[in-house]
Amino acid sequence: MADYGLPVLYALFIWWFSTGLILYLDGLPRWTFRWSMAAATVVLVLALVALTKTRTDVSIAGAYCSFTCGLMVWGWHEIAFLLGYVTGPYRRPCPPECRGVRRLMLAIATILYHELAILVTAIAMLALTWEAPNQVGTWTFLVLWWMRLSAKLNVFLGVRNLNEEFLPDHLRYLETFFTRRPMNLLFPVSVTVATVVAVWLVWRAGAADADPFTVTGLTFLATLVILATIEHWFLVAPLPATALWRWGLRSRGSAPRVEIDIVAGFLGAGKTTFVRRTLAGEGTGVRTVALVNDFSAVGVDGALLRGGGAADVVELGDGCLCCSLKGDLASQIRAIVARAAPDRLVIEPSGVADVPALIGAFGNPALKPLVERVHLYAVIDAAAFLRDYARMPGYFRDQAALTPVFVVNKTDLASETEVAAVTETLRTLNPAAPVVAARYGAVAPGARAALSGAAALPVTPPPRAGDHHCA
């Protein structure tokens, strides 16, 4: 039994330990990545040299050495991808309207360089060991590649457990290419083929005419295929895969928390001007990123904020933030926090946004650890509000029920009677929210305390009378 038991235990240990080590290195500060990558490259070169030296060694030790070299070569590709050095030309979230072949092509573009590097390495390993009696390392690499491709396709097509916990923050955009569903049609084919291959390898390793080298090599390969098959089952079964490598994930620590300011308002209310004025009056002590939702072809809102130098601006021009991006809002914010490390994120949704739905999206478990608190500011057009309210009362009632403070802008374009009527209507909609007057997006110095003292919102909105979506 030792002929089989020792290779199985060795394969289990090196698979578990190497995976945890890569996760641990990936969770360290970004400045350590170049050193980790340099060390991994040295190991890669040594592994390829050792693979060449042992290609004619058909002893048990030769099988162990070749298998270990194959895993080391594969580990280089894993760490190069997870550290972000070898990924693909497309490094952004999948556009929410993207479907079918277009989504597949973008998904391929996120990993293209990684897959090409694996292909080149596989060709090199085949050339180094061609017609040599010891090809355990080459087959180890090919088996890992085959099963990893299968796992990627299943995650793309849809499985229950996406294991997004393993993704570092700088690769969070990959989540937008994952699909969560109970199962897909490829999954049973994947596990069936893998199971058949594993059974065949076990049968060949147990053949009476198998020499010790063959027994050891086939046992290594069978163990890897069985482990990969179990990993596939982790994708659909309620099994805690992360518990196996909890020690490797500890290096990531807790994610930085960010303040969220949502500046909402109907079309033309002056949201961008208000944001720009508010940011300009804050000084430079707070690092801010503005997430702008602009439907225009030229990105007017983003250009205004960027031109003022008030904040780093991320424009989202394709679709409404609250509707189209609801699924990957967590990915967007995680990517921004990882890249820019802001103290505050100002979100300016489109004028037709379903604000309660947007606030409710912050109840996503993936976002809760990132968010310190959420504030909402409703910017009102004094000259147009009464007309808009008469046309869309439900929209304004839902928004007003959540709003801690109203900013009545463009008071210079409305009469005192109109401003008084707007103020009275808003107080009727939400008696607890103060009403602050503004001109050109700027509030009076004495009224700024009402803005800074606005209460933080719960991340789950209260029940609404209606379900009003974007118009």
Description:
This protein has helices spanning 2-26, 33-53, 60-82, 100-128, 136-157, 186-205, 212-234, 246-249, 271-280, 300-308, 321-324, 329-340, 355-361, 385-391, 393-402, 416-429, 448-452, and strands at 258-265, 288-293, 312-316, 344-348, 371-381, 406-409, 435-439, 442-443. It is α/β, with parallel strands linked by helices and 471 residues long. The protein has an 8-stranded mixed sheet with strand order 3-2-4-1-5-6-7-8, with helices on both faces. Helix 3 runs parallel beside helix 7 (212-234) and helix 4 (100-128) runs antiparallel to helix 5 (136-157). It is elongated. Mean pLDDT is 81; it is low at 295-311, 315-327 and 461-471.
Short description:
By secondary structure, the chain is an alpha/beta fold. It contains 17 helices and eight strands.
